[in-house]
Amino acid sequence: MTCWGWNASGRSTVPPGLGVMAQVGAGAAHNCALDDAGHVSCWGDNSVGETTVPPGLPSIVQVDAGASLTCARDQAGHVSCWGDNSVGETTVPPGLSSIVQISAGWQHACALDVAGVVTCWGANESGQSTVPRAIRQAALPPRWPAS
User: Fold this and answer.
1) N or C: which end of the chain has fewer CB within 10 A?
2) Sheet holding 108-113: strands in order across?
3) Domains of the chain (ranges, CATH numbers)
4) Are 40 and 34 in contact (CB under 8 A)?
């Protein structure tokens, strides 16, 4: 795997020994990768724990890096987030399940469940965590397998 660009905080210096990568997530000052065995590796700025992968995560199928947070989705559709939690961006809402996609943003995160319902949490000063009613209530077929 290769990263390039501004290397402040080591964000483009890929750690040695990574296996075969299945997916990557690029944040503001850190990056994360998911290998084909479901293990997450993160590097770059770790000033608020955004690259410190929590121990004991189950087999992960998706990872995304936000500004100062990282979120991962496991095979069972559960979400874990870590890093900055100054506005609740790593506090996953209780009861969130059957998630098929996640996205970590500036100070917020969103998840799409198997029924097509979007849930967001964290900062909301620009309405980024307020999902529009038409989307929130939509029962759309998922475009991504829950794998």
Assistant:
1) C
2) 99-104, 108-113, 118-122
3) 18-136 (2.130.10.30)
4) yes
Place of tokens 């969130």: 96
H/E stretch holding 143: none
Confidence of residue 137 (pLDDT cuts 50, 70, 90): low
Tallying the residues shown for the chain, one arrives at 147
So what's the pLDDT on residue 10?
Answer: 84
Cα separation, 111 vs 131, in Å, equals: 11
C-beta of residue 89 within 8 angstroms of C-beta of residue 121: yes
Helix (H) or strand (E) holding 147: none
Residue 133 parent element (H or E): helix 133-136
Of 92, 70, 73, 66, the closest CA to residue 82 belongs to 70
- Per-residue pLDDT band for 5 (boundaries 50, 70, 90) equals confident
Rounded CA gap, 16 and 75, in Å? 26
Residues 105-117 pLDDT 10s: 999 999 999 998 9
Residue 67 tokens read as: 């500004």
Tell me the one-letter amino acid at 52: T
Query: What is the C-alpha separation between 115 and 46, in angstroms, rounded?
Result: 35
